[in-house]
Each structure stands twice: as C-alpha cells, then as structure tokens.
Request: fold
Amino acid sequence: MEPFGSSKWPDHDPPRPNFLPVAARPPDDPPVRPPIKHSSIAAIMFFFGILGLVCAGAYFSGELQQLVGGSSVAQGQQPRPGVVPFGQRQDRLPGLEEADAPLGKPAPLSKTSTSYKFLAVKEDGTPLAYSPCRPIHYVVNSDVAPASWQALVDAAVRRASLATGLKFIYDGPSSEVPSTNRSGYQPARYGDRWAPVLIAWSTPEQVPRLTGQTVGLGGSSSIGLSNGYKAYVTGTVSLDAPQFAGIVDTPNGQEIGVAVIMHELGHLVGLDHVSDPRQLMFDEASWVRDYAAGDLTGLAQLGSGPCSKDF
Ligand SMILES: [Zn+2]
Reply:
C-alpha cells in the first residue's frame, strides 16, 4: 500500500475487509439483497456510505523536525529544486497569528467517555495536537465535489470547531491535489506561512488510497522543536468524489456526507479509530452521524494543547 507522508510511519488504517454489523442481519441467515425500491435505496446507500468511513489518518510526518537555530532535513528527504522539505521554511515566521491564549474553548462535555484514541501521544503523555492559540486555515479543492460541498464542509467544520474550541478559517478555493509528499510550506501557492489544511475531493486515480471502499482520508503533519514542543501545523482531508456523489444523492445523503467529513476532521485534529461502534471514530460500519461522548472527550483534549510562538 502506498502510505501518505513518511513511509517510515506505520499505516494506521490498513484496508478493512467488507464488514457487516451483526445487528444488520439475523444470525445464520445468508445476506439477502432486497428488491431495490426507493425506500430501501437510502438504507443501502447509507450503509455503503458508512462503510466508506474506513479511512486513514496516517500521513502525518513526525520524523520531520525543524530545529530551532539550525536546519534539519529529515532522513531520506533530500531537497529538490523548487520543493521545500516539510518542516523547513526559507523565511521563518515563527508565531504567525499566534495569540497568548487559546482562541476558543471546547464545548463543555455533558458526558465523558474513555472511548477515544489519539493518533500520537507526546513524551509528556499529552496528545499531539494543533496549537489552540492560532487559527487553522483551510482551503478546499471542489473541482470534482458535489454541488452542495460548501454546506457540507461548513457544517462539519463547525462541529469540529465546537468540539475542540479550535478556530478554523476558510481561505477559499485551491487547485492543489492531495499528494503523499505534500509540502507543509508552499510560498508560491499560499504565501510565507505554513500551507493551509487542504480539503479536497479527489479521484482514486489522483489519490490511490481512495481506491476501493475508502471514501475519505484525513491526517496532519507535525513539527517538533528542540525544546520538546511538537504540534501539527497542516494537514489534508481527501474525499473520494465518485463515492461521495453517490452518498449525497440520497434522502439522508447530506447528513451522511457531513458525518464523513467530521470523521476525517477527527483524524485531522488527532483522533485515531476506536473499536466502539457508538463513536463516530469507529473504524467500520456504523450508524453514528455525530461525534459521541468518546469522540467529544478526545476532541476536547485535542483543543487544549499548549500555545507556541516558536514555530
Ligand atoms: Zn477513519
């Protein structure tokens, strides 16, 4: 499988076999495909869509470290003309937009749960996260997106922002296509700052890991400083445009589409899959359409990381 980002990182999300929840059919009964009627298409498409939540959050690249006062090119990442290795900016602007305190707070938890898992945990035991003291800028490549893409992204980002307290800012459209070697610094395209988060509808031809039932991929790239500070600075959400078109073109399709993006945004800000089917970060088929108690407990921690003016 072709991993996103550093090939040295384990793949958090190997493709899963087709999975049918036990509750979806009586024990010992062979799967029965009902006649396709209008009323059943929604259920079938819903299940199809949620199956598509099998996805990945594995393309963050924690090995790529910027060292204060020096430069560090990650192993195997030799500079190429016109390409700035992740973690290196030619003209560093540390602390760009960084406030002295978090820009927001996670929504209060009505119920906590231990049903969450972080993609990465730092040496001090806290999760690898974005700085809550600067906004997370994002751009959208909607070239092959469904017509309703903006409402779906808005709704999903709003939910992720509420749950984490992280502030998201939409910077507008982008023609950038997701890449396994995406640079975290692209001054020609985005100016002298960390590249914004890219949310892109793509085809499996453009993003091979979307091949098969995977409808989305999400994850972020981190930077580490010599003082031990480590944080995500940018990331990517890739959505399978053909599958997505099939999902949203159903009676409940918009809601499912939002749930798919919310799941990927969960990966983006640092949540891994869990084995609890009540959570939106469950890694297989599920009826969940919103962040549940475990998701929210994890997201609240991911929005409560330290500030830093050093990167
Ligand atoms: Zn996932």
Summary: The beta strands are 136-141, 168-173, 197-202, 216-224, 230-240. The first strand starts at residue 136 and ends at 141. Residues 45-73+102-302 form a domain with the Collagenase (Catalytic Domain) fold (CATH 3.40.390.10). Residues 53, 55, 57, 263, 267, 273 surround zinc ion (CB under 6 Å).
